[in-house]
Amino acid sequence: MDLGHDRTPAGVSGRAWSINVLNFAARWRLWDGGRRYDPRPGSRGEHVLQDWYGTRDRASKFYDRQLSDQLTPKMVEFIGRMEMAFIATSDAGGECDCSFRAGTAGFLRVLDERTIAYPEFRGNGVMASLGNILENPHIGIFMVDFTRDLIGLHVNGSAEIVTPAHMQELDDCLPGPPLQPGRQPVQWVLVRVTEAYIHCSKHIPKLIPQSRVRHWGTDNPRYKGGDYFGAAAQNRSVLEVDPVPAGTAVAAISAPGSDSRSRDDDHDHAGHRLRPGLNGRRYPPWGGTDDRAPAPSSLA
After folding, report:
1. What's the structural domain count of the chain?
2. Are 211 and 273 found together in one domain?
3. Can you name the residues that pair with 197 across neighbouring β-strands?
4. CA within 20 to 30 Å of 129's CA: 54, 90, 113, 142, which one?
């Protein structure tokens, strides 16, 4: 955070001053147990920084003119022609994840001015977004028109997971199941809209769409991008340098007084070394299973 020389006291580094400002913000937020009333929309952190940087009036105009607690007819039309969206979720601890969803125009469904839904197609099996929603229903959806109007739309709300059968009951106009298996939704995410607002066009690039074959639901590494970023190769090299001795995990389980916490942190209950995963979590090796995960039926 760069506060500028005019606000940084003499003899205090910019970094130290930034930390002081953040500490001030935290204390202000916790003042009176966080119960201080503020009629403005937005978070307490927004308000602290608006006051600090002198943007309160500008922000208030945005809140008054552009922030809505429901979808306008223009927003409904906009969502209906989108072919992609960015989905932001976090787990119960606040660890965040942002993901990408795509489909043909109309894959994002508007049920009414306060409810939208999007399908979950077959993916890599991690289910990071759905897992977060099970723990924390708050969700942010960002849609951008890169090709025509160069404008964006934010939709925030509360999400829940519903089955395709239940979604069919909620949306009478929902098309029937597609013939291609990879295009059939595995689950749907239903979002109750709490706020919707514009993302201005000034920094959105103009893109020219080109047709391409999309391999929906495939597990073929060639069509999924392979090891584009080299993560698989790096993980293999780590395992080769630090292999798990045979029987180590079994001995730790059966030995009296063994440190089960350390074992659980580094290995699964079958003795496999856990690999680092999304949001700092640990997962079984690629191709492995974890019977501690909730059964698919729990998502219904």
Report:
1. 3
2. no
3. 154
4. 113
